Automatic annotation (TrEMBL):
Residues 1092-1290 are annotated as: Disordered. This is PDS5 cohesin associated factor A. Residues 1115-1134, 1176-1185 have a biased composition (Polar residues). Pfam families: PDS5. Its main location: nucleus. The keyword Hydrolase does not apply. GO terms for cellular component: chromatin; nucleus. One of its GO terms (biological process) is mitotic sister chromatid cohesion. It comes from Zonotrichia albicollis (White-throated sparrow).
Length: 1290
């Protein structure tokens, strides 16, 4: 090529720079536009040159060096930089294989410069995009970056390049751009000496789900790159996973926490990428860390279960190791394994044989959720294709129809029903499939004969039918009223309720509205419907009515009429298609045959007594739903026969049937009346307690002269009460209690003297017998002493008496509440003479707590229950006896779910977070879910409820919960992290359920309530700084939890919450409380959930400390004993209850007070558990540290060690350390000189609570869950405790 003569320009190093023809010198003295113009000509010149142009190469070498100067590489103008980069790329092409730049630093600067220019590829609509594409194409074609292999820090350049290319790729790029990027990166990977971890990270980061979702094109680019370089990059990937999985070096990469996500993606891209990694996963499956095993199981479940995976056949050792996790000791691991089985059965039928045996074991798993998921797994696969599940798998589901848990039984029954419907009724898979599941119909019909309350499907069906009939009856009544806005609103609400009881309530709403319009227009249709739901309608009449209504609504022009189908469904649900007077008469005749002995019951496999009892139970249920069908002399004669039978249950059921159905006996059947009255009197006086209750209620329900009848029972019973014969007291007390409740105007006054002179003074305040000192915390009903049974009934009598009066004019309720509180404070031993047994004390504590809860259901008594009394009642749910906690929680739930109890009682469930038994915590959580759901639904369905939000809105439980936890006896030191962690667990136990949904900005509302509490004082002790500090501390913990769990809590609260004045004072003017009561370090500890240290079986644990409480001493009652307002006294202080020991680790019976334990004490340092598998018949162990459990109690077998340690500490440091305060025991006076040191101990809360054993895992039997630790010998003498008088009238 001939060049016109140009004026050469000297370079800085003295060499002369020759520019292409027509290009003037490029310096910093000219404008950017001029620089760009001249550079474009230079670019054109270099583009046209090839590697063979030796003269030109030599001619333009100084120019090539000049273009790499700082002026160009640091130029602020992006057009200049782009043109220079294009020139440099061409220079590398022209001068290849040797670059004209010899300085390593200069080469690094150049390539980093070129890499930065590649960012311009991002905008495909840019006018300069073609130049950017040319730059990429040139670099990829020449493999220019391979020059960098000679540089020591070439990795920095490659990392920058890879990150740039992955960041700029997008969906507007065509395939050529992607191919050039792949060529550029793959040449670096395949021709280099290896891939460093940082470079590997720049590729793998695009596979992480978060990045994958942000830039799908980068994910695709990384995927293709890995496929192309699989042979080269596999060892590098293997090394990365080896470092993280085997050696545990998570610091080698920022992606260490995403290893399992990466393995899943890499396996999907090409399994060969993980050839060396799979054995490492087998190693991880055997990790001692349960959470780590869970993560590996989740990963492998996806790898084995994916549709096209052949990993199970390619890697049998890993598959077998994975199957072993079905028997893992960690519940979540077993649960995850079972969930995987469903996908595996559907995607890999050939593996069903391997899975069957493991699913069989898990179908008997101790965990309800796992048994439930086994059923879901099998049914899901069966619904997809019946051939996927063999007969053995269906057999597992069949077994679970008899599971002890209703949720599991329901899932099994519903699943089988769905299979039967699909393959038998609809015959979707032919005869063979139908035959395979033909047994399901018989199995499901037999379920109706189960005795469990949950399984009485017929009973439930009749109850639902009765309820729906009443709704329709109320709707028809509304049609009879004049039209008004209130009437329309009430009618709309009733229609919505009816629609809820129909399939697909959403669609049913429209049909129900249409049906209601038809009813309004057609009077004959209304009369037909009224006849259908009338109590006297027979089955034959019902059939005629249904046909007539359907005929009127039918439309011949519309063969498929969804509206008519819905109406038919409604009519079928409310029509008496099963039961009428004829049916009841037939059932009674069958029962008569059993009574007379002429029935062939023995041939049916049941005894006559069993047949009679079962028949009466069925009739009893029907008496609730179809009372008018019983009204016949023949039926009542048969029931009178039952009343005369010796079987107590039969007689009780017969009385209840009379009570439900006998409203017209007095007028229509005088002969039955004259025979029935003396029998009812006899049962009320000398029958069983249940018979007495039903007899009194029966008299009150069906006789017009009930006052005379009840007086004839009341007077002789009240005169004959004798505390010296307690076994003859129980029935009279039951009868007297119910009489005073049903007829308060007549019997409230005479009952007052009975209560004062006998119930309190003679019965409750005296212990006539000495209980059996066997240390058991609970005994079966038949082993409870008659005296204690009488006392329990006496407490119930007090409650029934007050519930009948429904006023507190005589202040009797205040006295009764103080008496019940004293019973709780004294732990059930009101006299404190220590004559009563532990199990009897448990019964009395339960009775007292339940009584307070029962009184709270009456508004006039709820108002006078003090916060202290409410707290005492609440602490029963943390009683040391499992059965007390269980029964109290059930009673609490039953009252709350019926909206009978005030909202503050729902806060009691927060204390269940401390229950050591997992089953009890799960029950409490279900109760909360049910209660919250019912309250929210009630507010939606009842517009008037908005006026009572303070007592209905579930979120309003938060202030009650905060106040209750602030007064928890365990919470003594506001800055103690362990105590704060317990508080946080209790708060979260409730808040987790409340915060499931952010309904109406409820998160912000709860936060606002917690903040507002800090502007008030504790109404229980407003002037006590420590009480207020504890209250504010709990508020801060609540705020900490709410803020950490919800990003929506910072919004403005829709309304200003109202705080209950019973627990909080009114906010003071100018009072500002912006202090943080928990430190930042404590917040982190609470939120990170760092586990508290817990004991391991056999190690020497620190004894569980318990707070003391103030003795609740009684004063001597008045001589006359004329009022319940007598002051109670006791010569002895409160007894203590020893802390329960960890029974789960020793197997000691819960009720043994001084058990003999044979257990070797192992060193404190124990080896980690190696075997993580669990057999099918292995019972759940209690040595796990479940969330919310109490701090671990003294380890079994270490009592003597503790005793020696304590004795030694007394000798060395003085007696102040000898005895730890225990829950339920007043603080002992300290020897002189130690008072100041133990001042905090002596200021412990005044109330005590039974603490549940630390690691119970379930009741097991009547003697499981309440083990008593041996009493330790006190090393100091017990000085007489100071007597403190408390006036119960205060």
């Amino acid at each position: 090529m001939d060049f016109p003569a140009t004026q050469p320009k000297p370079a800085a190093d003295g060499k002369i720079i020759y520019y292409p023809p027509g290009v003037k010198e490029i310096t910093d003295k000219i404008t950017n536009d001029e620089v760009v113009k001249r550079l474009k000509m230079v670019v054109k010149t270099f583009m046209d040159m090839d590697q063979d142009s030796e003269d030109e190469k030599q001619q333009y070498l100084p120019l090539a060096l000049h273009l790499a100067s700082e002026f160009f590489l640091r130029n602020p103008n992006k057009d200049v930089r782009l043109l220079v980069a294009c020139c440099l790329a061409d220079i590398f092409r022209i001068y290849a294989p040797e670059a004209p730049y010899t300085s390593h630093d200069k080469l690094k600067d150049i390539f980093l410069f070129i890499t930065r220019q590649l960012k311009g590829l991002e905008d495909t609509k840019s006018p300069q995009f073609n130049r950017y594409f040319y730059l990429l194409e040139n670099l990829a074609w020449v493999k220019s970056y391979n020059i960098c292999f000679e540089l020591e820090d070439c990795n920095d350049i490659f990392i920058q390049l890879f990150r740039t290319l992955f960041s700029v790729i997008n969906n507007s790029h065509n395939q050529k751009v992607q191919m050039h990027m792949l060529d550029l990166m793959s040449s670096i990977i395949m021709e280099g000496d290896g891939v460093t971890q940082e470079l590997l990270d720049s590729i793998l980061i695009n596979l992480i789900p978060a990045h994958k979702n942000l830039n799908k094109q980068a994910f695709d680019l990384a995927k293709v790159l890995l496929k192309r370089t699989v042979q080269t990059i596999e060892p590098c990937i293997a090394n990365f996973f080896n470092q993280v999985l085997v050696l545990g070096k998570s610091s080698v990469s920022d992606l260490s926490e995403h290893v399992f996500d990466l393995i899943q993606e890499l396996f999907a891209i090409d399994p060969h990428l993980l050839l060396s990694v799979m054995p490492q996963l087998e190693f991880k499956l055997k990790s001692n860390d349960g959470e780590e095993r869970l993560a590996v199981v989740r990963l492998l479940a996806k790898l084995f279960g994916s549709k096209d995976s052949d990993l199970a056949t390619q890697n049998r050792p890993l598959w077998q190791c994975f199957l072993g996790r079905f028997n893992d000791i960690h519940v979540p691991v077993r649960l995850e394994s079972v969930k995987f089985a469903s996908h595996c059965l559907m995607n890999h039928p050939d593996l069903a044989k391997d899975l069957t045996e493991y699913l069989k074991v898990r179908s008997h798993d101790p965990e309800e959720a796992i048994r439930h998921d086994v059923i879901v797994t099998i049914i899901t696969a069966g619904k997809r294709d019946l051939s996927l599940v063999n007969d053995q798998l269906l057999g597992f589901v069949r077994e679970r129809t008899l599971d002890k848990r209703w949720r599991v039984r329901k899932e099994a029954m519903m699943g089988l029903a769905q299979l039967y419907k699909k393959y038998c009724l609809h015959a979707e898979a032919g005869k063979d499939a139908a035959e395979k599941v033909s047994w399901i119909k018989d199995k499901l019909l037999h379920i109706y004969y189960q005795n469990s309350i949950d399984d009485k499907a017929l009973n439930e069906m009749w109850k639902c039918q009765n309820m729906l009939r009443s709704h329709v009856r109320e709707l028809l009544d509304l049609h009879k009223q004049p039209t008004s806005e209130a009437n329309s609103a009430a009618m709309f609400g009733k229609l919505m309720t009816i629609a809820k009881n129909l399939p697909d309530p959403g669609k049913a709403q429209d049909f129900v509205k249409k049906f209601n319009q038809v009813l309004g227009d057609d009077e004959k249709l209304r009369s037909q419907l009224e006849l259908l739901i009338s109590p006297t309608c027979s089955c034959k009449q019902a059939d005629v009515c249904v046909r007539e209504i359907a005929r009127k609504l039918a439309n011949p022009k519309q063969p498929t009429n969804p509206f008519l189908e819905m109406v038919k469904f409604l009519l079928e649900r409310i029509a008496p298609v099963h039961i009428d007077s004829e049916a009841i008469s037939a059932l009674v005749k069958l029962m008569n045959k059993s009574i007379e002995g002429t029935a062939d019951d023995e041939e049916e496999g049941v005894s006559p007594d069993t047949a009679i009892r079962a028949g009466l139970e069925l009739l009893k249920v029907l008496s609730f739903t179809h009372p008018t069908s019983f009204h016949s002399a023949e039926t009542y004669e048969s029931l009178l026969q039952c009343l005369r039978m010796e079987d107590d249950k039969v007689a009780e059921a017969a009385i209840q049937i009379f009570r439900n159905t006998g409203h017209k006996i007095e007028t229509d059947l005088p002969q039955i009346r004259s025979t029935l009255i003396p029998i009812l009197h006899q049962k009320a006086k000398r029958g069983t307690p249940h018979q007495a209750k039903q007899a009194v209620h029966c008299i009150h329900a069906i006789f017009s002269n009930k006052e005379v009848q009840l007086a004839q029972i009341f007077e002789p019973l009240s005169r004959s009460l004798n505390a010296d014969v307690p076994e003859q007291l129980i029935t009279p007390l039951v009868s007297l209690g119910h009489i005073s409740m049903l007829a308060p105007d007549q019997f409230a006054s005479p009952m007052k003297s009975v209560v004062a002179n006998f119930i309190v003074k003679d019965l409750l305040m005296n212990d006539r017998s000495t209980g059996e000192k066997n240390g058991k915390l609970w005994s079966p009903d038949e082993e409870v002493s008659p005296e204690v049974l009488a006392k329990v009934q006496a407490i119930k009598l007090l409650v029934r008496w007050l519930l009948g009066m429904k006023n507190n004019q005589s202040k009797s309720a205040n006295s009764t509440l103080r008496l019940l509180s004293a019973m709780l404070v004294s732990e059930g031993d009101l006299t404190e003479q220590k004559r009563i047994s532990k199990s009897d004390m448990s019964r009395l504590r339960l009775a007292a707590g339940s009584a307070i809860m029962k009184l709270a259901q009456e508004p006039c008594y709820h108002e006078i229950i003090t916060p202290e009394q409410f707290q005492l009642c609440a602490l029963v749910i943390n009683d040391e006896c499992y059965q007390v906690r269980q029964i109290f929680a059930q009673k609490l739930h039953k009252a709350l779910v019926k909206l009978l109890l005030p909202l503050e009682y729902m806060a009691i469930f927060a204390l269940c977070a401390k229950d050591p038994v997992k089953e009890r915590r799960a029950h409490a959580r279900q109760c909360l879910l049910k209660n919250i759901s019912i309250r929210r639904e009630y507010i939606k369905q009842n517009p008037m409820a908005n006026e009572k939000l303070l007592s209905l809105l579930p979120e309003y439980v938060v202030p009650y919960m905060i106040h209750l936890l602030a007064h928890d006896p365990d919470f003594t030191k506001p800055q103690d992290v362990d105590q704060l962690r317990d508080v946080k667990e209790c708060l979260w136990f409730m808040l987790e359920v409340l915060m499931t949904k952010n309904e109406n900005n409820s998160h912000a509302f709860m936060k606002k309530m917690s903040e507002n509490i800090k502007l008030t004082r504790d109404a229980q002790s407003p002037d006590e700084p420590k009480a207020n500090e504890k209250l504010y501390t709990v508020c801060d913990v609540a705020l900490c939890v709410i803020n950490s769990k919800s990003a929506l809590c910072n919004a403005d609260s829709p309304k200003d919450p109202v705080l209950p004045t019973k627990f909080f004072t009114q906010p003071e003017k100018d009072f500002c409380n912006d202090r943080n009561y928990i430190s930042e370090e404590t917040r982190v500890l609470l939120l990170t959930g760092k586990p508290k240290p817990t004991g391991v079986l056999g190690t020497v644990n620190k004894p569980l400390s318990a707070t003391g409480r103030r003795p609740y001493i009684r004063t001597t009652g008045s001589e006359t004993g004329s009022s319940v307002n007598s002051e109670l006294s006791s010569s002895a202080g409160n007894r203590s209850r020893e802390q329960s020991s960890d029974i789960s680790e020793t197997g000691v019976s819960e009720n043994d007070e001084n058990p003999v334990r044979i257990i070797s004490v192992t060193p404190a340092k124990t080896e980690p558990v190696k075997n993580k598998e669990m057999n099918s018949d292995q019972t759940t162990q209690g040595n796990s540290t479940e969330r919310g459990k109490k701090r671990t109690a003294t380890a079994s077998g270490t009592e003597n060690i503790h005793q020696k340690t304590e004795e030694k500490s007394v000798e060395e440091t003085g007696p102040s350390l000898a005895a730890k305060t225990r829950r339920g025991r007043p603080t002992k006076p300290e020897p002189q000189g130690t008072t100041a040191k133990n001042e905090e101990t002596n200021k412990a809360p005044v109330r005590g609570r039974k603490r549940a054993a630390a690691n119970q895992e379930g009741p097991g039997s009547l003697e499981a869950g309440n083990a008593k630790a041996p009493k330790q010998q006190d090393t100091a003498k017990k000085p007489a405790a100071a007597q403190r008088q408390i006036d119960l009238q205060r």
